[in-house]
Amino acid sequence: MPTTEERNAREVFTSAARVWLQENVPARWREHRGSLSEKETDEIRHEWDRQLHRGGFAGLSLPKEFGGQGLSMVEEVIFHDLAAQAQAPDGLARIGRILTAPSLIGHGTDEQLARFLPKILNGDEIWCQGFSEPNAGSDLAGVSCRAVKVDGGYLISGRKTWTSFAKMAHRCLLLAQTDPSAPRHKNLTMFLLDMKQPGVNISPIKQASGLTHFAEVQFDDVFVADADRVSTEGSGWKVAMTTLMNERGGVEATSRYVEIRSDMDLLLATLGDRPDLRKQLDELDIRVELVHWQVSKAVDLELDSPDFFRATSILKLLWSELWQETSILGLENMTPETSDHWRLQYLETRASSIYSGSNEIQRNIISERVLGLPR
Ligand SMILES: Cc1cc2nc3c(=O)[nH]c(=O)nc-3n(C[C@H](O)[C@H](O)[C@H](O)COP(=O)(O)OP(=O)(O)OC[C@H]3O[C@@H](n4cnc5c(N)ncnc54)[C@H](O)[C@@H]3O)c2cc1C
């Protein structure tokens, strides 16, 4: 239970955040986000990262000494809630904020934290996640991108695929194989690779929606310094597990909740007076709030605890399937005003059951590690 002091502090935070969001969410985004070009969408989202930082709302739960706000997950959830109500955009710095930052806090050096976190939080550096490869997606331990030791660092060669934000990223959180002779899970190392150097070749992949959010990335002898290796050689799997726990965990789900809540509000605003859809809308609305409730439950639990793992493991399934269903209902009942939005959302949300680990894999994890069922 929060103390009176904590409750008061949260109320002050909530009022300040609400006012700030009212004044800062770009009207163009609020009113036209379904019909903006990809370029304009990216510009607004990137500027939003900077606005959050200027307003003191970037990295709410990250340590103050590295540019965060030193608050807790509770404030993260409060802010995301308010952002959903205010129809705020989601910044482009999400990989850095949600994946790189906690991975570095868990495994990086103070020097790495001091060097990278401030630029993630002020929006200067966009990150991508270089995990998946053409032959290693669900079977992440099978990555074959090689890191060969040379004087002062490593040379990276190999191919990553489905790399979101690659075309604009400054850095990549890259999982590579350092020792092919070592046993599985002990042969990998995590790197913080500079994407703006020769040997990094990015080929955007066009999605069903026509957008190009991700790309295939070929690395040809790309140098990464020893100082940009996370933890020790061979500990990449451990670091990757921290990354994935965050990718499937509370902050990611909270930020998805923002987007789903906003879609749900659009459904209610445009279809709320249709008696034939009432039951379906109510059911979806309840499930949207269930995501929120489940996130709030996880917030009070200790990170890395079995309870936290149990509470968050279901989140990915909840939000991804729900998001697909809201977009189907929107598409089936679109109006001339909402047709652009729902067409795009329908195509975009197809991928939500694949990224952040496919839903089949997530079900395997729940059955084996939460329910204790046999393999
Ligand atoms: C929009 C989008 C963005 C992405 N962004 C990134 C990114 O930024 N960085 C990154 O590294 N990756 C990214 N990915 C890749 C994503 O993590 C992989 O697509 C995902 O892990 C699945 O891997 P795969 O595509 O190789 O499919 P596969 O692993 O080949 O799986 C194919 C199918 O088989 C099923 N399957 C596989 N193994 C099992 C099993 N043991 N039990 C049951 N079913 C199984 C899968 O669920 C899937 O349906 C992104 C993907 C998408 C769609």
Give a written overview of the molecule.
The protein has 375 residues and is of the alpha+beta class. It folds into three domains: 4-92, no CATH class; 127-234, Butyryl-CoA Dehydrogenase, subunit A, domain 2 (Beta Barrel); 248-370, Up-down Bundle (Butyryl-CoA Dehydrogenase, subunit A, domain 3), CATH 1.20.140. It is built from 13 helices and eight strands. It has helices spanning 4-24, 27-32, 38-55, 73-85, 94-107, 110-121, 236-247, 250-271, 278-299, 306-313, 315-332, 339-349, 359-370, and strands at 127-130, 146-150, 153-164, 171-177, 188-194, 200-205, 214-225, 229-230. It has a four-stranded mixed β-sheet. A hairpin with an 8-residue loop joins strand 6 (200-205) and strand 7. It is globular and about 65 Å long. The two termini are 39 Å apart. Flavin-adenine dinucleotide binds at residues 128-132, 137-138, 162-164, 214, 351, 354-355, 357-358, 360-361, 364.
Question: Topology of this structure?
Answer:
Layout lengths: L3 H21 L2 H6 L5 H18 L17 H13 L8 H14 L2 H12 L5 E4 L15 E5 L2 E12 L6 E7 L10 E7 L5 E6 L8 E12 L3 E2 L5 H12 L2 H22 L6 H22 L6 H8 L1 H18 L6 H11 L9 H12 L5
Parallel strand pairs: 1-4
Antiparallel strand pairs: 2-3, 3-7, 4-5, 5-8, 6-7
The site of flavin-adenine dinucleotide (FAD) has 19 residues, from strand 1, strand 3 and helix 13.
Give the tags.
Butyryl-CoA Dehydrogenase, subunit A, domain 2, single chain, binds flavin-adenine dinucleotide, 3 domains
**CATH superfamily placement of the largest domain:** Butyryl-CoA Dehydrogenase, subunit A, domain 3
Structural class: alpha+beta
- Cα-atom radius of gyration: 21 Å
**Binned strand content:** 5-15%
Count of alpha and pi helical runs: 13
Q: The biggest beta sheet, please?
A: 4 strands, mixed
Outline type:
globular
**What is the CATH architecture annotation of the largest domain?**
Up-down Bundle
Number of strands: 8
Which small-molecule ligands are present, each listed once? flavin-adenine dinucleotide
In whole angstroms, the N-to-C terminal distance is 39 Å
Along the chain, the helix and strand elements come as HHHHHHEEEEEEEEHHHHHHH
**Low-pLDDT residue intervals, each spanning 5 or more residues:** none
Number of domains: 3
Helix percentage: 40-55%
Could you name the CATH topology of the largest domain?
Butyryl-CoA Dehydrogenase, subunit A, domain 3
Going across the biggest sheet, name each strand in turn.
Answer: 1-4-5-8
CATH class of the largest domain: Mainly Alpha
How much is the average pLDDT? 92
GO cellular component, one term: plasma membrane
Domain Acyl-CoA oxidase/dehydrogenase middle: 128-222
Domain Acyl-CoA dehydrogenase/oxidase N-terminal: 11-124
Pfam families: Acyl-CoA_dh_1 (PF00441), Acyl-CoA_dh_M (PF02770), Acyl-CoA_dh_N (PF02771)
